[in-house]
Amino acid sequence: MSTNDNWVFGSGKARYVSRVWFCSGPGKGFDVLGVLSRALPAGLWEFKYRFRYYRDEKVFDSADRKSFTTATWPKEVEESAAVEMVAEVVGVMLTSGLECDELAVESDDRSRIIELLAEKRWMNLRFDLTGVMQ
């Protein structure tokens, strides 16, 4: 997994992924990918998201500029409340003309998470020769 993608799964520690959001819009020149997750067994809720500003048409190894941000909530916050708070942010993006797709993952099984992400046209996954996601 590339360094830029470690923010999705963390640094090898077990993570529960609740939701993944992807927002983009025709002619906007950027997209937003966000992941709501927590470290297991009971870490803080983290909403990690990145803006990707297009500089070329490449999916991988592009010159695109990316910025990463993280918001956190106490571990005592219920999952539904964390999802609702993120949904409010996504709602603001919708008012700016972006189209957003929400993927309910609700799993800590890394293989299942990758399987669900692979079904999305907006999620471009790349694996090395040993089958490890880059």
Strand order in space, largest sheet: 4-3-2-1-5
Strand pairing plus helix content: what structural class? alpha+beta
The outline comes out as globular
- Largest sheet at a glance? 5 strands, antiparallel
Strand content: 35-45%
Number of domains: 1
Supply the key terms:
134 residues; alpha+beta; five-stranded antiparallel beta sheet; 3 helices; 5 strands; disordered N terminus
Secondary structure elements and their pairing?
Elements: H1 6-9, E1 15-24, E2 30-39, E3 45-53, E4 65-73, H2 79-95, E5 99-107, H3 110-118
Antiparallel strand pairs: 1-2, 1-5, 2-3, 3-4
How is this structure best described in words?
With 134 residues, the chain is of the alpha+beta class. It has one domain (3-118). It has three helices and five strands, in the order H-E-E-E-E-H-E-H. A five-stranded antiparallel sheet has the order 4-3-2-1-5, sandwiched between helices. A hairpin with a 5-residue loop joins strand 2 and strand 3. The model is unreliable at 1-5 and 128-132 (pLDDT under 50).
